[in-house]
Amino acid sequence: MAAGGAALAALAALGALAALWLWLRRRRALGGAGRVCVAVLGDLGRSPRMQYHALSLARHGRGVTLLGYLQTKPRSDVLDNENIRIVPISDLKTLQVGPKIFQYVVKVIAQAMQLLYTMLKMDQPSYVLLQNPPGLPSIAVAWVACLVWRSKLIIDWHNYGYTIMSLIHGRNHLLVQIAKWYEKLFGRLSDYNFCVTNAMKEDLWEKCNIRAVTLYDKPASYFKETPLELQHQLYMKLAKVYEPFKAQYATESVNSSAERSAFTEMDHKSGCVIKTRGQPALLISSTSWTEDEDFSVLLKALEDYEQYINEGVKLPSLVCVITGKGPLKEYYNQLIDKLHFKHIQICTPWLEAEDYPLLLGSADLGVCLHKSSSGLDLPMKVVDMFGCCLPVCAIHFECLHELVKHNENGLIFRDSNELAEQLKKKSSGIQAAALG
What we know:
- The protein has helices spanning 2-30, 48-59, 76-79, 100-121, 138-149, 161-169, 174-187, 198-208, 228-239, 296-310, 329-337, 355-360, 380-387, 416-435; strands at residues 36-43, 64-69, 84-88, 127-132, 152-157, 192-195, 213-214, 259-260, 264-266, 273-275, 281-286, 318-323, 344-347, 365-368, 392-395, 411-413.
- By secondary structure, the chain is an alpha/beta fold.
- Helix 4 (100-121) runs parallel beside helix 5 (138-149) and helix 10 crosses helix 14 (416-435).
- Residues 1-15 and 27-31 have low confidence and may be disordered.
């Protein structure tokens, strides 16, 4: 009886597999030639490079399936493009039972099953363009889906996932070693590869025998200097929520009846917008609040900047805006709350996708604290700052020279003391320009 039951179960399983195979062949026969699946096992709204890939492909007539989490709304031009179809996947929560490694393994297995099921339900693409990291389990799942579809797998290497894991667990942790082995093994199974730096291109070839093409990030067209009128509208919008953008009425105003923010004022009659007299300098940084960015460096530099002013150095007051979401945001907000500045205000907003480039194009100085976990990727935020013609101070790491060249297109610092000196130098120039 038991043997008969097992035989029946096996026949049922074979029947189910045969039915799935016939269904997939039918879908393949229906076509999908030229379609591209752009996939990231992460938040689409916080994956600008993959959104740009989707837009570029769509503008060249390709049908695009954009696959990922929808925790943050993508840009409106992505949402409104008729050639782009967004397929959301759910962000699975970690099981809170058993040892950490057991919880992680269960989550990876669940993600793999969910992702494969979602992909096989989609219209068949000719290509799958996958972001890595995160690559566990998405590289293996995408490879399996491409085998079924007879499609080509393209990996866009932004970094190595195992090096990001090592920031939390250490390089010798079992999970990190498994992730490293997995990434190299399944990375070799791709058909084509992009990467973000020449340093990564060389590393992929030397250590993984993977040939890749360097595809440097470029700023989208909407990253540009923001006209004064749009600056004023943005400041007034942000002033409703964030104190540093509100008008400081102790400051003398040219027109007492004007609509004012901390930085601008608009005459109600003429609609003319001018800079507010004695306005603070606007410093901006963006972050995912992860271990590869140490914001204590910026906070210490701001303490030194405050000290410069207290010692009599003529510098403008500062509004420091740090945008983004991430796991360490609450930790740094607690550090910020302990600071008591007289000449510096700090806020940590999450901006709408359309507001971020406007604020970047309104700022006086950009600061980047991204230190690559592998030493092989570049901060996209600096690319966006360059698009807005924003002066940039960036912390040093191995391949930063591929993007920022010290004293040519930006400044590079190694610690908080160097950053403080650069803030003082740049702010003095901003103040001189405002007075001139």
